[in-house]
Amino acid sequence: MAEADAQSSAAQDDERLDPPPDGAPGAAASDQAPPPPRDAVLASALTARDAAPGAAPSERDATGQAEATGDQPQRFGCASCCREVAGAERASWRELDGDVLALASANTPGWHPEAGLCRPCALRFAEARDALVSLQRGGGVVILPTALRLGAVERYTGRGVGIAFLDAGFFAHPDLITPHDRIARYVDVNDRKARRRDLDRGNPSSWHGMMTSVVACGNGSLSEGFYRGLASDARLVLVKCGSVGRIRHDDLRRGLRWVVRHARQYGIRVINVSCGGDYQASYLHDGLSQAAEWATREGLLVVAAAGNQGQAPDHPVVPPASAPSALTVGGLDDQRWPAFSGYDMYHSSYGPTLDGLQKPEVIAPGIWVAAPILPGTPTAAQAELYALLATAPDATLRESLRAHPRVDPDLDAAAELATPLLRQLVLAKLRDNNVISGSYKHVDGTSFAAPIVASVAAQMFEAHPGLTPQQAKLILLRTARRLPHVPAERQGFGVVDARAAVLEAERLAQAASKKA
Predict the structure, then answer these.
(1) What pLDDT does residue 389 have?
(2) Which of 58, 150, 204, 426 is 20 to 30 A away from residue 403, measured at CA?
(3) 272 forms bridges with which residues in the sheet?
(4) For 475-487, b where at least 16 C-beta lie within 10 A, e where not — what string?
(5) How many CA atoms within 13 Å lie on the side-chain side of 463?
(6) pLDDT in the model for residue 73
(7) How far apart are alpha carbons 342 and 325 in whole angstroms?
(8) pLDDT for 136
(9) Burial class (CB in 10 A: 0-12, 13-18, 19+), 313
(10) Exposure string for 183-208, b = 16+ CB within 10 A, e = fewer
(11) Under a CB-based contact definition with an 8 Å cutoff, are residues 347 and 363 in contact?
């Protein structure tokens, strides 16, 4: 359909997309040798959890400088988070467990224990230590939860906030529907007969939208709350705009328009778009971009993935991510750990757009993101088997494998290998298939960076319901932190600071309350 035709029939499209719901709920650098590689310290960090703090990390620290005098400088620059804090906020190595020191050494380039850490970083590494103990039992790739990696404010969970997701398909994953179903509405722009019960059956098109929605709003039901999104109490409105094979430009426009028309009904404050149109276009004439602008004017924050073509010659940003008011999110490679000093870029698309706008505005983790595996699929069966074998004792390893024939032909053929070789094969399967556990894998793409930012925004709207989308976007930009070694055109205002953004929203809410 031509764009002119699409715009002229917008009203009819919107009405056709509105069948009645069927029971949906709820309308100091050093001259010492560099620290050991990360993988070399993980095992010792895990076993040191209950040990007393280790020996002095260096002769220099044991014999002098600030430790000997007990004096604290007025200001302290933390090498891990790259923030300057009050000297009293410095945690000496003597205050930290040996495993925390090991984790910090492995994940903060150029850092040595005598430098110390700021207390927030020391706490985050201690939380990471505890998380590693839990992950060790799962046998899969070590991926820390998003909230821990971002240092997020966990007392806000998006309660009372609606988030709409536009994607190729969805699935009613346990992390969204147990113990309470938080899917408020499901719509298919190409099928007016679509109903909520359709989400109970998975298909190839379900994967992407299932993962994006759970990354933002999952409550970690299948991980005992471990892989919990930042907006784990938010309501969801799921808008299917295509299939795994194709999402058309105009279908996204229709999906956005439906969301705007029903935003008040479902309490929607944030729209997450982890997909893009068919082509680059000027927002002055493009219907999809104008739909994003309309959504902003109507009080909705549009969060859009920048795309993954940063290595392409023109690294294009397409609508709706190229729309001026959209908060466009690029990808960050945080190396899986909560140390800002080790951050780097993911290969996300970047501007300028056809209109000369610089995109993205912010970046968020776009790789090493924990996401659900679609239940009932061959991929799920394989992940469950790999996790089972990874934790099985030697005495029952072969028995466990033989009890699950025809799940993985390679493993079937390797059943008679020596135990060490069989274990190596299982480990390779875990890593090659990005398996974290029997229920989760790690994924990459700006498709997953965007819902992380959308979930931060939901926390902000919970903290301050009176925020406008423009105010929320401005807070996210002002609190973001630039990577010093990355050009501004790649990262925009920098890495989203989830904690700072939410606390600023909270501060504004308190100020507004005092004025009232």
Answers:
(1) 95
(2) 204
(3) 165, 303
(4) bbbebbbebeebe
(5) 28
(6) 60
(7) 31
(8) 60
(9) exposed
(10) bbbbbbbeeeebbbebbeebeebbbb
(11) no
Counting as low any pLDDT under 70, the low residues of the chain are 1-73, 134-139, 339, 341
Query: What crossing angle do the helices spanning 119-136 and 98-107 adopt, rounded to 10°?
Result: 100
User: Quick one: which of 336, 301, 298 has its CA closest to 444?
Assistant: 336
CA atoms of 316 and 151, how far apart (whole Å): 31
Residue 22 and residue 197 in contact, taking contact as beta carbons nearer than 8 Å: yes
CA atoms of 200 and 176, how far apart (whole Å)? 12
The pTM is what?
0.83
Beta strands per DSSP E along 247-343:
268-273, 301-305, 327-333
- Domain spans of the chain, in order of start: 38-142, 151-371+443-515, 376-438
Separation CA 349–CA 359 (nearest Å): 8
Q: How many CA atoms lie within 13 A of 155 on its CB side?
A: 5
Take residue 239 and report the two structure tokens written for it: 């808008």
Could you please state the CATH topology (level 3) that the domain comprising 151-371+443-515 is classified under: Rossmann fold (3.40.50)
Tell me the backbone φ, ψ of residue 479, rounded to 5 degrees.
Answer: -90, -10
Residue showing tokens 């875990």: 430
pLDDT value, residue 3: 40
Looking at residue 127, what is its pLDDT? 81
Distance CA 259, CA 7 (A): 16
- Residue length of the chain: 516
CB-based contact 237:262 (threshold 8 Å): yes
- What are phi and psi for residue 482, nearest 5 degrees? -70, 140
Give residue 64's pLDDT.
31
Contact (Cβ atoms closer than 8 angstroms) between residue 457 and residue 303: yes
CA nearest to 139, candidates 321, 386, 355, 459: 386
Q: How many CB atoms lie within 10 A of CB 310?
A: 17
Chain center to CA of 174: 18
Please report the pLDDT score of residue 443 as a whole number: 97
351: β partners: none
